[in-house]
């Protein structure tokens, strides 16, 4: 049997340590093609470039087993679309995104370019996983993730995933010896208490930096946040059907 | 009782006809503040500006009843956050986004800046609605939307919405006399068959424009696409909990 074709992307840019760790972990298990943004695209959510042009360029990549690597001028979702329709000319057997520098648990899933790439894979019908480590630092240590990346990816390759879903996988920032295993979870109801740092330009004009504090009133032990706080690798099955099905009957009672 | 405070935003930019139609329809019903992008931000999804700065400027707006209007250098979600925390200094009673030039039914909800602004409102606990007309043209005629915008907005102000949800409202491009009323729906399973238009720059470098064709194998009569094809205004309750709850038990059986 030929080796599976694995597409790897991220939102921290093709130079990030996290995507190298991901490619290195999966190199023994498939033909790896990397298609990733040419610069950091954190917080890009599901943005697509529809009012501008995209360029791509083949580049060298730090992991010699990688079959080809391309950098794209667009967003993570652009990378997935260009990879399938212009670079591979086919759908890969598996799409992996990350490993993100920083958490994509809880509400972060909707802001995350890393997870939006995985969601786009699911829209395309490709088994897809987004991986994130709870450490923002450019020099974060991803070594504890490797064995879990392999296990989860090989399981998904073998069994595929329920239709219309992908996986949102987050790692606590712990050495592998302190990880307690994998826990299947729901997205917690945490959110960001936003704030802005208001400054003044040299010319006297006000401008703003977005800041904020993550707040989580949801103490459920079935949540990703609980799992991560307790040393588990959290796995949330994530879908692109945003319908609040439970709310349909309520709205029908309004007789609009 | 004092008039409700209504925040209006969009993704087509503060100059678009659709946002003017929305503000005009709601002007009799509340104190309106417009906070919208200074240029078109279609397809921006849930992008937020975390690696750059934001600027804002008070501007005049074509609807004289509007209390204040601000244009922002960022995305629709940036607009919601800046509006609440720097402009209003409070959460509005209602957040309305649109009226978008073009459909946000089906899978378009995940790419849409208009809907991401409404989803962000829901994350903030604000009753929120995104409106879209199935006509992309800059000079689209929004007159058939007005009475439905009023009815839906006043209903939501009166009753609020189920926790964690907002509404995704789409209008067929029909005169008001041909609209068949409102239908509560689920998001259809349609998707984009992507394609790229490959061109060459004057300097000889390849570049790409994203194109594609919307395809909908989902013939369910409970979908937004069915409702719109049959002359109904579609209303989909939309949530930011992306957990595929039904997939949790399947994944637990994998014994990861």
What does this structure look like?
The structure is a homodimer of 256-residue chains. Chain A is an alpha/beta fold. Chain A has a single domain (5-188, 219-252), classed as Survival protein SurE-like phosphatase/nucleotidase (Stationary-phase Survival Protein Sure Homolog, Chain: A, 3-Layer(aba) Sandwich). Chain A has 7 helices and 11 strands. The first copy, chain A, has a 9-stranded mixed beta sheet, with helices on both faces. A two-stranded antiparallel ribbon of chain A has the order 9-10. In chain A, a hairpin with a 5-residue loop joins strand 9 and strand 10. The longest helix of chain A is centred in the middle third of the chain and has 14 residues, at 146-159. Chain A starts with a strand and ends with a helix. Chains A and B meet through helix 2, helix 3, helix 4, helix 5 and strand 9 of A and helix 2, helix 3, helix 4, helix 5 and strand 9 of B.
In short, what is this structure?
The structure is a homodimer of 256-residue chains. The first copy, chain A, is an alpha/beta fold and 256 residues long.
Compute the number of structural domains of chain A.
1
Number of strand segments of chain A: 11
Helix and strand content put the structural class of chain A at alpha/beta
CATH homologous superfamily descriptor of chain A:
Survival protein SurE-like phosphatase/nucleotidase
At the first level of CATH, the class of chain A is: Alpha Beta
Which fold name fills CATH's third level, the topology of chain A? Answer: Stationary-phase Survival Protein Sure Homolog, Chain: A
Give the helices and strands of chain A as they follow along the chain.
EHEEEHEHHEHEEEEHEH
Radius of gyration from the alpha-carbon trace of chain A, in angstroms: 19 Å
Query: Averaging pLDDT over every residue of chain A, what do you get?
Result: 96
Shape of chain A: globular
CATH architectural designation of chain A: 3-Layer(aba) Sandwich
Oligomer: homodimer
Number of helices of chain A: 7
Major sheet details of chain A: 9 strands, mixed
Strand content of chain A: 25-35%
